[in-house]
């Protein structure tokens, strides 16, 4: 069974790559033609759907219940609209864009690499170990993803990811709920985990604000989002971002419900970000596992190949990228119980301080040194509050301090 599953996954990846190469021949690179609403939505979703959509959403609902699931979805929805307003506000100010993205690019990539390593560990578990043949096939497939990334035809890759993601989020919950009925899940949650159904806990809703900071920062720092925004027809931009946010909402909402199946069926993952994987292994059948593994591999290889191909640091590019991977691997080794949501929350101490800087930098250029001092001081204060009042409060205090500093700085510079 295990061998059959592995072969099925590899064959699926090969056939998907053949399909993408065929579609790629008839599509031009990003930037040659303006996008309408349809292409704009696909391009935006291709940049917004990733590993965390399928792993962190279920972890959030597993740890925080209904509040975690709705909070994750609402934060992502709001960040789409906020980033659109931020891009519209900064339209034409390319100097400020390059300064802001350049200042935080390394942290942005570091978080992505850590998440990719954590997801890679899960995929290896789903493969039931890697022998030489499987590893060689995966390397060949990965090399094909690098070739696709070098061609810079982002729309083709985005279309590939969007179609596969929508299929996965429709079929996998369906397969699971065919085996574990909805009444069984509801009664199981009521018996084993009534805390998951609590929605009148105001402090828990702070997760919406914290995840909003994280999603907004990543969308703003993603240079492809800037390119897509510029290439969407001006009259279609607002509609493209709005529709993209509501289509994206369906994905984490669908996958996140698997955590309720886990609690109702007493599925206890070793680490909380593995909850969706464990549920699919037990109730999704061989087809469900294969579909989920293929989706995760596509997300993982797309992310890593894009990181390898992207030129961000000039002559020192290769050395910095290698150093980033090494540091990320060391972090994962030193903290074996680190989860994807933990990584997102930890980096949110930086992102919550960055958001007010990005928003208020439109008309006043802020020196890089001042930016980093503000971020570090705000993060330190936020961590101090976290130790006494909790994670969510610490991150929000971090944001408020950075906001106050930037408002004062703006008023002084305008005088």
Count of domain modules: 1
What's the CATH C level?
Mainly Alpha
Reported for the largest beta sheet, the result is: none
Helix content: over 70%
Number of strands: 0
Unreliable sequence segments: none
Morphology call = globular
Order of helices and strands: HHHHHHHHHHHHHHHHH
Integer-rounded radius of gyration: 21 Å
Q: Quickly count the helices.
A: 17
Distance between the termini: 72 Å
Protein name: Sodium:solute symporter family protein
Keywords: Membrane, Transmembrane, Transmembrane helix
Describe this structure in words.
The structure is a single chain. The chain is an all-alpha fold. It has a single domain (35-339), classed as Sodium/glucose cotransporter, CATH 1.20.1730. It is built from 17 helices and no strands. It is globular and about 70 Å long. It starts with a helix and ends with a helix.
List the topology elements.
Blueprint: H1 2-24, H2 37-48, H3 51-89, H4 94-126, H5 132-150, H6 154-179, H7 182-192, H8 206-221, H9 223-231, H10 237-256, H11 258-264, H12 275-283, H13 285-309, H14 317-334, H15 340-360, H16 368-389, H17 391-414
Helix pairs in contact: 1-5, 1-13, 2-6, 2-9, 2-10, 3-8, 3-10, 3-11, 3-15, 4-13, 4-14, 4-15, 5-13, 6-10, 6-13, 7-11, 8-15, 8-17, 11-12, 12-13, 15-16, 15-17, 16-17
Protein name: Sodium:solute symporter family protein
Keywords: Membrane, Transmembrane, Transmembrane helix
Transmembrane segments: 6-23, 35-58, 64-87, 99-120, 126-147, 159-182, 202-221, 241-267, 287-309, 318-335, 341-360, 369-387, 393-412
């Amino acid at each position: 069974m295990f061998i059959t599953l592995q072969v099925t996954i590899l064959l699926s990846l090969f056939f998907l790559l053949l399909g993408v190469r065929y579609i790629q021949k008839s599509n031009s690179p990003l930037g040659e033609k303006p996008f309408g609403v349809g292409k704009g939505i696909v391009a935006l979703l291709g940049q917004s759907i990733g590993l965390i959509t399928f792993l962190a959403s279920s972890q959030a609902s597993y740890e925080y219940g209904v509040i975690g699931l709705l909070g994750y979805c609402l934060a992502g929805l709001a960040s789409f609209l906020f980033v659109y307003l931020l891009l519209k506000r900064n339209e034409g100010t390319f100097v400020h864009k390059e300064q802001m993205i350049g200042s935080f690019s390394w942290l942005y990539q570091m978080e992505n690499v850590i998440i990719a390593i954590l997801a890679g560990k899960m995929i290896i578990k789903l493969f039931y170990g890697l022998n030489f043949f499987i590893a060689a096939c995966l390397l060949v497939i990965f090399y094909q993803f690098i070739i696709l990334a070098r061609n810079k035809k982002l729309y083709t890759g985005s279309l590939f990811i969007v179609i596969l993601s929508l299929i996965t989020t429709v079929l996998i919950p369906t397969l699971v709920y065919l085996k574990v009925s909805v009444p069984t899940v509801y009664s199981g949650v009521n018996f084993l985990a009534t805390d998951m159904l609590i929605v009148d806990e105001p402090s828990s809703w702070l997760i919406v604000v914290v995840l909003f900071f994280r999603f907004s920062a990543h969308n703003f720092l993603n240079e492809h989002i800037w390119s897509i925004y510029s290439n969407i027809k001006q009259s279609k931009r607002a509609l493209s971002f709005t529709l993209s946010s509501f289509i994206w909402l369906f994905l984490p909402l669908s996958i996140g419900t698997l955590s309720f199946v886990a609690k109702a069926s007493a599925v206890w993952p070793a680490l909380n970000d593995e909850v969706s994987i464990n549920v699919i292994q037990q109730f999704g059948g061989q087809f469900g596992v294969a579909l989920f593994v293929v989706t995760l591999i596509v997300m993982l290889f797309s992310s890593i190949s894009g990181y390898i191909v992207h030129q961000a640091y000039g002559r020192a590019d290769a050395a910095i990228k290698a150093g980033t991977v090494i540091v990320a691997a060391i972090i994962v080794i030193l903290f074996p119980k680190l989860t994807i949501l933990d990584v997102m929350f930890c980096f949110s101490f930086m992102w919550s301080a960055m958001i007010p800087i990005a928003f208020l930098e439109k008309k006043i250029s802020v020196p890089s040194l001042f930016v980093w001092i503000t971020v570090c001081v705000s993060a330190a204060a936020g961590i101090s509050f976290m130790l006494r009042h909790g994670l969510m409060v610490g991150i929000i205090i971090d944001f408020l301090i950075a906001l106050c500093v930037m408002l004062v700085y703006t008023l002084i510079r305008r005088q």
